[in-house]
Amino acid sequence: MKRTRSHRDLWASLLPIAGAALALAVVWRPPVLVSDGPFTQALLVVLILAGIAAACHRPFVATSTVGLGAYVLPTALWLGGAITAAGLAASSILIADLALRRVRRRTVYGGVPDRRSPLRSLESTGRAILAALAAGGVWAGLHMRWGFPAGIALAAVTYLATWITLEAADQKIRRLDQPLRWQSVLPPLILDAFGWALGGVLAATGIAAGWTLAGLLIAGTAVLALEAARNRVLHQRSHYRARDMERLSRAAKRIVDKDEREVADVAERIRAECERVVRPFWFQFELLAPGSQFKSWWAGVSGELQEGVPEPDRYPPPLPGFHRRATWSILERQLRVEGRVLARIRLWCDPRRLDAQGVELLDRLIPQATASLQRCLAGRESREDALTGAALRRVLEASLHETHARCLEEGKAMAVVLCDLDHFKKINDTWGHAAGDAALVAAAGVLKAAREGALCCRYGGEEFALLLDGANGEEALAVAERIRRSVETLPFEWEGQRVPLTLSAGAASFPELHIKTAAELLLFADEALYEAKRRGRNRVLLDVGQGRYQDTEGNLLQAEETHPVAEPPRIFA
Questions:
Q1: Each residue of 346-372: pLDDT tens digit?
Q2: What is the Cα 101 distance to its own chain's centre?
Q3: In what order do the strands lie in the sheet with 414-421?
Q4: Which among 7, 150, 210, 261 counts the fewest CB atoms within 10 Å?
Q5: pTM given for the model
């Protein structure tokens, strides 16, 4: 997670910048070159170009200034002194940082702006100015007395000491309660010392053998440094591409798994992966699969997924700093299988934070999201009735046996309620099968909301079953009566006319009834349902065994004995 920029970070960046500006204001005077001819000016141009190329190459650590010591500072001190060296060092670092930011944005980060603050570039420039001025002061006082090699050596020591002091001060300002991390200071110090040694050799070559040869050596090695910088950028690009592919692989594993999940769970997983890829402020997932009821889930800035339709603000929230106010950038993707649209994803993104790389990763995630949703819908079709959304009969039978085995082991109760819509055939004959289907859907909605944790199943035709885990007979009878009243008061209409709906139900419970298998409980409930229909429908009964039934008022009813009508004797010839 990116650390939030604090006031200490701001002060740590501003102090070197302010210190460099103050130092230049104090010591500034027009630089006096050793030779103010066109050859010296051309050599300075070569130096600054070499310095820019070398500043782009920062092996191992980003704070290394090995290129300044190798190509710019020793020769610049000899040609023009501290002011010239500080100006060339500042120009090299600043131009190289700006160029690197642009190159990385286009090649490495895929259009995303460099997360490194621009103040860091100015901070590095201020450090280089301060260290170069310190080295130039030592050089001006000693090289005339002790000669070039000793003067350059002492200037290098001064530069390195100033740089390491500024680095230590930066660490202390940013993290006051932590010790200095010398492992981050010593590697650039060693590299910078090597650069000063190489720069001293090149400057000595120019003094002894002529600056033409030194200029050629500087230009040639600067080209090598620039090629090394290009290779490093390409390496970073491949690293980021590999990291993106790894992120995509992990996201695909998180979205597509072998567990059976509900559509809302799949939508939540897709939302989480979209949050990692394109960072949307608003998210919407619409289920459009053929044969499924339209549903929509959304999540706002809080990230909490909830059912419904989003209502985003007109503009994205403001960002720190000065930004042009922009409207939403809406990304819409469809999850398709063989031309069928299963779902639609809609993302409201801030265009100031949206990048082409994130959109590319989002497009690569769509096939995994489609596969996950397709698997979820297939699993739901194998478990649920397509019309009512209630569980299928085979799901009830498996759950019934599992619940019965658990009740035997733990000594708990269970109950079954069988429900049947009264005069359903009359609804179909009078209003049509579409009205009958709508009546089944309405009744199923009441049954599924009857008791939390209960399994609602379409048992067959207009008949439904309810498995109540942990409920005794009295509780099952109360649930059945509540369902009956709710169905009776349903405001069900068809073609502008109210269609009355009533329901009969039979209940049976264990261990109040002695059963050997779980399927016998369904038989007892079915007998109670049959007795309720025989007694006039629109009522519920609880089977208490031995042909007796209990109604909602607590009355015990005895089933009437029914004998088959005696057939007359048949005479066979």
A1: 999 988 888 777 888 888 888 888 888
A2: 26
A3: 455-460, 463-469, 414-421, 503-510, 540-545, 548-550, 556-558
A4: 7
A5: 0.46
